[in-house]
């Protein structure tokens, strides 16, 4: 099992990164928040989980061990696969997810793209006892993002744009405007839309 990647960052995409290890470029899917920490040409270390399916081997990358563990715990829920688990971590970190699940905050869980009322209820029912160890003070990122229109989603997309070279001053208003037009869009969709708008300003 591939538990971590350490090497030169070759590429950072909208929802994935590529790190070279021993002459081989490894592609991994990750949240915008994780990708924002990577810089092409620099050495980086990413914690990973390998998901094996009949037709594919997919790596998922994380900057924190808690997020990687939460990613695995989420998939123990019936009907919740790796893509939805990553979407959950794109909206909330491990601590915030634990707080929402432990507090049976169904409405908060429904802010995750792809999670409806039934899935949110299933999360609280099946994981309430399993996520207690992740519980803690909500992350600073979530607290800082609260005043903005899109909360964690806007914050994550803004961080990703800063990682791609834009200033926060330029990126944040564009992301908030795009979110106002597409309030139900996921992180990747908002990132693409914001990039398109920023590209017009150049």
Structural features:
202 residues, alpha+beta, OB fold (Dihydrolipoamide Acetyltransferase, E2P), DNA polymerase, domain 1, Helicase, Ruva Protein, domain 3, 3 domains, five-stranded mixed barrel, 47% helix
Outline:
Its main location: cytoplasm. Belongs to the RuvA family. This protein has 10 helices and 5 strands; from the N terminus they run βββαββααααααααα.
Describe it:
The chain has 10 helices and 5 strands, in the order E-E-E-H-E-E-H-H-H-H-H-H-H-H-H. The protein has a 5-stranded mixed beta barrel with strand order 1-2-3-5-4. The longest helix has 15 residues, at 187-201. Strand 4 and strand 5 form a beta hairpin. Mean pLDDT is 85; it is low at 137-148. The relative contact order is 0.12. Helix 8 packs across helix 9. The termini are far apart. It is α+β, with helices and mostly antiparallel strands and 202 residues long. It folds into 3 domains: 4-62, Nucleic acid-binding proteins (OB fold (Dihydrolipoamide Acetyltransferase, E2P)), CATH 2.40.50.140; 65-134, Orthogonal Bundle (DNA polymerase, domain 1); 150-199, Helicase, Ruva Protein, domain 3.
How many domains is the backbone divided into? 3
- Output the number of helix runs: 10
Which range does the strand content fall in?
Answer: 15-25%
Low-confidence runs of at least 5 consecutive residues: 137-148
DSSP E strands, number: 5
Radius of gyration: 17 Å
Helix content: 40-55%
Which strands sit side by side, in order, in the main sheet? 1-2-3-5-4
Which secondary-structure class do the elements indicate? alpha+beta
In whole angstroms, the N-to-C terminal distance is: 43 Å
CATH superfamily of the largest domain: 5' to 3' exonuclease, C-terminal subdomain
Largest sheet: 5 strands, mixed, barrel
Provide the succession of SSEs.
EEEHEEHHHHHHHHH
Mean of the pLDDT scores?
A: 85
């Amino acid at each position: 099992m591939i538990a971590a990647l350490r090497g030169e960052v070759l590429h950072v995409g909208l929802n994935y990164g590529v790190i070279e290890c021993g002459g081989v470029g490894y592609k991994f899917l990750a949240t915008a928040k994780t990708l924002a920490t990577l810089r092409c040409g620099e050495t980086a270390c990413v914690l990973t989980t390998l998901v094996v399916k009949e037709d594919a081997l997919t790596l998922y990358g994380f900057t924190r061990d808690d997020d990687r563990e939460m990613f695995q715990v989420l998939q123990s829920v019936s009907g919740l696969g790796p893509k939805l688990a990553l979407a959950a971590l794109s909206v909330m970190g491990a601590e915030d997810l634990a707080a929402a699940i432990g507090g049976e905050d169904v409405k908060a869980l429904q802010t995750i793209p792809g999670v409806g009322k039934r899935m949110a209820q299933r999360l609280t029912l099946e994981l309430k006892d399993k996520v207690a160890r992740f519980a803690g003070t909500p992350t600073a990122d979530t607290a800082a993002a609260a005043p903005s229109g899109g909360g964690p989603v806007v914050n994550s997309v803004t961080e990703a744009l800063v990682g791609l070279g834009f200033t926060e001053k330029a990126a944040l208003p564009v992301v908030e405007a795009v979110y106002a037009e597409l309030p139900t869009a996921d992180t990747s969709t908002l990132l693409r839309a914001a990039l398109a708008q920023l590209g017009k300003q150049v």
